[in-house]
Amino acid sequence: MAIPETQFRSLIQSHQRMVFSLALRLLGDYETAEEVAQDVFLELYRSGERFESEDHIRFWLRRTAKHRAIDALRRRSKRPESLADEWMEQDHSPHFDPATHVSTEARLESLLRTLPEGLRAAILLRYQEDMLPEEIAAVLGQSAASIKSQLHRGLTLLRRKAAVTMKEYFREPV
Amino acid sequence: MNPYDTNPKLAEPLSPELSEFEHQLRNGLRPVDPPAGFADRVLARARQSEVLDNPPKQGAAESSRPRRFAFPGLRSRLWAGSAIAAMLLAGIVTEENHRIEQRHKAEEAQRQFETALQVTDRTLEHVREQLYRAGVPLEQ
Question: Where exactly are the structural domains of chain A?
């Protein structure tokens, strides 16, 4: 192996939650998310890149996880953009039956998956990974101003959706 | 440790009216664990890909097959012997051709020399006759 096995195992164990969660929330299903997360670590293993620090590895993993998840999304031709657009155009009544007792987290994740890829990635890096807009900009290869605007747009859209579908938890700001 | 305790910029909401929602979202998007055995599966794939990327060398595969020649290196020695014999044969043929060519050249030169001698003899005889007719005494 290019990286000694013990070192590679420890690397996986340190970052697997982050990589898997990003893939899962971008893709929306466990099976593909695990496949993508595995691919990301294998790419790291084969890359032969010299990592200068833990931050460098984390940055590389986040960027690669995002790219591979988006690739997988495109492969299976799922179009969250169109779903999001349709959602905005429809007249909504609450979709969730409180009797099903679906957790708030699961509902939020479902709403998140209706956002366009770009907005979703920015929201995830901000609220799952606790990254600053400037750091997100570096990972996604965009300007910080554009990321701030996407975050605001994504958050507003999510808030509106939550106000409709999760009335018991969220209210539309007045 | 909560990163917001140490980095005040992270706690800064994007807009005041969304701050509560941001808080809910942050709580809802906590990282989740991958299915059990994830690291083992990645390592297994890494090992497998390493085997696929670096397959055993061809010689190693051949060694497990039944060998046509019982003695190691015999085939290569036979090849070398044949090559040397062919080279020697080619050398002998070339040398023989060269010798025949030289002999032909020598015979041709001999013929030309004899012709030249005959011409010279005839010329001298002609001159002697002319001198004799003119009454020039010729020393014997």
Answer: 5-75, 80-165
Quote the ipTM score: 0.74
| Gap from B63 CA to chain A (nearest CA, Å) | 26
d(CA B5, CA B1): 8
CATH 3.40.50.150 applies to domain A80-165: no
A152·B15 Cβ contact <8 A:
yes
Chain B neighbors of A173, CB-CB under 8 A: 17-18
Contact map slice: A 81-120 vs B, CB within 8 A: 104-105, 108-109, 112
Residues from chain B contacting residue A156 (CB–CB below 8 Å): 18
Q: What is the pLDDT of residue A95?
A: 42
CA A47 to chain centre: 23
Its pTM stands at: 0.59
Q: Is A57 exposed, middle or buried (0-12, 13-18, 19+ CB in 10 A)?
A: middle
Closest chain A residue by Cα to residue B2? A130
Q: Among the CATH numbers 1.10.1740.10, 3.40.50.720, 2.60.120.330, 2.40.420.20, which is that of A5-75? A: 1.10.1740.10
> Using an 8 Å Cβ cutoff, are A149 and A113 in contact?
no
Least confident of A45-49, A57-61, B68-72: B68-72
